[in-house]
Amino acid sequence: MTATAKQIRPLIAGNWKMNGLKSALAEATAIRDALTTDPGAPEVMICPPATLLAPLADLTQGSPLAVGAQDCHAAPSGAHTGDISAEMLRDTGATAVIVGHSERRADHGEIDRIVLGKATAAHRAGLTAIVCIGETRGQREAGLTLDVVGRQLAASLPEGAGDTNTVVAYEPVWAIGTGLTPSNDDVAEVHALIRRDLEARFGAAGSRIRILYGGSVKPTNARELLALPNVNGALVGGASLKAADFLAIVRATA
Ligand SMILES: O=C[C@H](O)COP(=O)(O)O
Question: Partners of 43 in the beta sheet?
Answer without folding.
Answer: 11
